[in-house]
Structures
1.
Amino acid sequence: MRGSASGPRVMLRRLREVMAEPISAQDRLDRIVMLIAANMVAEVCSVYVLRGDNTLELFATEGLKREAVHVTTMAVGEGLVGTIAAEARPLNLSEAQSHPAFAYKPETGEELFQSFLGVPILRGGQAIGVLVVQNQTHRVYTEEEIEALQTTSMVLAEMIAGGGLQSLVRQGSNLALQRPAQLTGRSLAEGIGLGHAVLHEPRVVIQDLIASDPAVELTKLDEALESLRSWIDNMLSSRELGVTGEHRDILEAYRMFAYDRGWVKRIREAVNTGLTAEAAVERVQNDTRARMLRQTDPYIRERLHDLDDLANRLLREIVGWKQHSADGEMPKDAILIARNMGPAELLDYDRNILRGLVLEEGSATSHVTIVAKALGIATVGMVEGVLDLVNDGDAVIVDGEAGDVHIRPTNEVETAYADKVRFRARRQAEFAKDRDLPSRTRDGIDIALMLNAGLLVDLPHVAEAGAGGIGLFRTELQFMIASTFPRIGEQRDLYKSVLDAANGLPVTFRTLDVGGDKILPYLRHAKEENPAMGWRAIRMALDRPGLLRTQMRALLHAAAGRELRLMFPMISDVSEFEAARELFEREIAHLNRHGHQTPDSVKLGAMVEVPSILWQLEELLERVDFLSVGSNDLFQFLFAVDRGNSRVATRFDTLHPAVLRALRRVVARADVADIPVTLCGELASSPLAAMALLGIGFRSISMSPAAVGPVKAMVRSLDLVKLRKWLGPRLIETGGNLRLDLERFAAEHGVITG
Ligand code: PEP
Ligand code: MG
């Protein structure tokens, strides 16, 4: 077979026959090593498989002593085989014994053999085993032979990953691929989810490794590449980026790889050795991955993610698989795993089967997190490497409190979590018991605890959580889940249902806040370098008054005969509020002229979420009926940290004195003007931060539904006058973070914040 391109093809065909035979796993492995040895004209062929304890075990051999099978083991890094596994690259030696790593295992009888060729059995770029051939003579294996052995090792990789060798594992030990793993990220949305992994972007399981006609495979590859490239080009020129959670620089990297001639050439070469197009992509990706994982340069490692995503996309194109799991069959207890995703993509899934969400990226105030919270899905973000470890269908536990993710948990971990879930249910029951108790501090100050909402599923929460009403209704969510603009009647119906569900409690609607990462797929939108600071929210609404007026009309109809509270997002200049108010008044006049019933009372407010407005408060307060602070955006702009970028979003603590001082300024000015003010950012959802907000003067805060119980427990255990006395001087004196001080205050004064 040396030097001939048909050699590997013949071997692959034979392997396919062996794979199809109805024999036991051990017999199959034995036949495979025999076949490889014969084809490579080698006296020895052995397979080592990596176990969960990081030990390589001899699973089959042709040529070494049979007694050594399932007896000989070596640690990763030990001996030649261990070195191959550790470095995930081949080792080609004409004189094995003289290699410094050579370790003699007497039971195998291998001292007879001089030359040695070993290749890692790769899965996702990590070695999960080692395949070795040996000869008695001093022989140098050719490049083609190394290639052929690597290609053959893919068959073994599929056997191991597909669970085919599970039955050969001794009781009490397991294969590396099945071992339990625990990763820690950041808790993004509370709750505990037990279920089974669903990869948002499914990983193709290669069924056919061996091609019958390479020409057909090459055409398949070319067509898939073509469609992949046009997808990238379209994404880059449309402005759908936010919807999919993909960022421009990632797409630029995709484009670079997709047009990279070297990458495509390597895949074509692999097809020419006899692999199917999909197996060739996987084969090249495995090698590239193994090579890139050895790099220490963080930039290159980062790009590896991009190349992985792209290769997976290409695989799905080739085999005609759906690009996203939302379009296919799902388990009843899905834990969704993704690198990142946009809010609209999460909404594509059936809420009833989602138990948890795990993101490699993501941040606490990104909109996908806000939607996850609204849906009550336990979420952990910034979980590095989760996509390398988890396979579709693996058991997973998401601990949205501790920020932990358990993959293939042991029975003990599962039991502990079942207890934790019961404990949480008891706590929730306690919160529920307090539901009808007043939200009043120990020293008798009433605090309004409101809900953030945006979807129909949120509505039952108003009553369940015992909230004082809806402090923020994000109207854009209805627009984001629709495939075309919701018509005026649809808008009116939703707003009416919201008011009905609130049953007389106040509801504050916010006009459309799209732009940034909240993109409507059907709304054409020019490219922006910096969408968070671009054409969004009130800016877009005033430039497209038709949209805003339709929404206002829908709201006015829905609130006929009741109170309508409406606020405008991203006000950065007082004139924007005035322009919006004028439009609103014109709508009321129009309805009156046509004899329609209008709301009994109307309250118009502005969101404080752009720093410029902090220095126009007096002018603004003269014009508004209420203010609502959007701390998510305000924090993002105050510190210049992108709320959706996990690299920087957590760089500064939200309890920084700069934030608290800015917020205190808002409350103080509003109090002087006698205008009600509330805060509706994520800050209010954490009991400790909510305590700080009360300490600087807020008497009304709005939060995600799950937070109402814990925050009410905090309120009822707090002596607010004491806190104010304690906090006042610290806000002036403290330069750094106040979190630790606040925690200490809570602990010393029995305030329930956990
Ligand atoms: C905010 O910015 O704090 C806010 C409440 O609005 P959103 O999170 O929808 O931008
Ligand atoms: Mg905002």
2.
Amino acid sequence: MTIEGIDRAGKSTQARMLCEALGHVALLVREPGGTAVGEHVRELLKDPSVEIGAEAEALLFAAARAELVARVIRPALAEGRVVVSDRFLDSSLAYQGAARGLGLEEVRRINGWATGGLVPDLTLLLELDSAAAARRRGESDRFESEGRALQDQVLAAYERLATAEPSRWRRIAADRPEDEVHADVLGAVRAALPKLAERVGPA
Ligand code: TYD
């Protein structure tokens, strides 16, 4: 299962709280990262002194994802564990495919190859608009308008992806206290994956 949303939507906090609720069966991973290659790629992508073209950026995310799937996610699934990923291929579709303009189909294709076609059972979209995300940081006036515009495009892309595949996606309003968001996250998991629900107890 994967958690998606714009920057500062609270994905990491919710992913952690969900894994704590699920207990030992759950494995938390984050993208990019989680493997030796993934962590190096993460550093490379975050280094402001390294200029990277949009295509190379998409391929680097896909390379990190290929390693994570092959070395961590598939072995964990084979052991019967539940993997919760803080971002996954939908991040590439929204950021690289839509916001950076590479095209959803191209990005889907390279990622399909990178992951061997692995698709999450459930994807939670933490819905928070860019203005609320900026307020969270307490820097709304310093938040560059270009940065805001990018986040708006990413959110719009997520909304389209969720609408196109309603059986996989659940939308969760994220502009609320984290405990309330967590309760809805658990509710969505219970409803979508009833076998797992037994592990998190009654609502
Ligand atoms: P990160 O520090 O993980 O941000 P956050 O904690 O807010 O999720 O950095 C991830 C950044 O990389 C984030 O801005 C989204 C972007 N990203 C992509 O553009 N494509 C991808 O496929 C992934 C996984 C992340």
